[in-house]
Design brief:
Layout lengths: L8 H13 L2 E4 L1 H10 L6 E7 L10 H19 L4 E7 L1 H7 L4 H17 L7 H7 L1 H11 L2 H7 L2 H15 L5 H26 L2 E3 L4 H7 L5 E3 L16
Helix pairs in contact: 1-2, 1-3, 7-10, 9-10
Amino acid sequence: MLENRDLTPKSIAGWEYTLSASVEAPVYGGAIIDRFAQSSAEQPLTLFIPWGVSPTRTAIGRYEEVALDWTKRYSELLLYYGVPNRPLIMPADVYAVEINGDDPDRVAQCFSSIGNVAERLGFPVVPWSTIREQNRDRYEDTLKWECSLEALWQSTPKALWYDGFLPASFSRNMAKRDDVVRQSAFRYLQERIAEARVIEAAYAPVKLSMVSKQKDDIVDRELPRIYILDKKLRFPWLKGEQT
């Protein structure tokens, strides 16, 4: 992993710390090491953190606060090892409203509660709808050339369709027709892949994932990512108990 790279003390220290903190192996470790080395006080590394919406509450939940605290500790220790960084929380508002049909006002309330806590921790909060609009050309090009329905059906393992995306879409759309469920699953995949391309181009980040590695492996393309959150805390927005 470390061979043939322009290594610096901070990139080595940051990488070794990240490995020790990881619950699953990082993805695209070489790119992560390079980005650790390139970070500076003037251009800190972006730790990209997408955030979902709770289906049952609008106030931030206890598990979400724990996940944010976990992120804060990783960020601070990464800085201690010499890697300036900036956690960026990205509320997944487009998925909630456009794909899942959630009430926009309820979604806004939910993300406002999360955003207030994140900003108190010093994390900028920028929703996907804003990032998408700022990078509209790249977004549209990705949908056109990489995310046609036929291309997605051919490139995505069928087991993941039937065991992952379709059941998840059904649970969000139980009162709707089968074709609506399938269309929702396709739209989710399209949006996630376009998101990965846009985020990579706009931020050159390392993704700090809050979800399962299996799903990320399909939709995140070449986005470097790490898994430091305890598996019991994953998908913190889907867990109950608001604070």
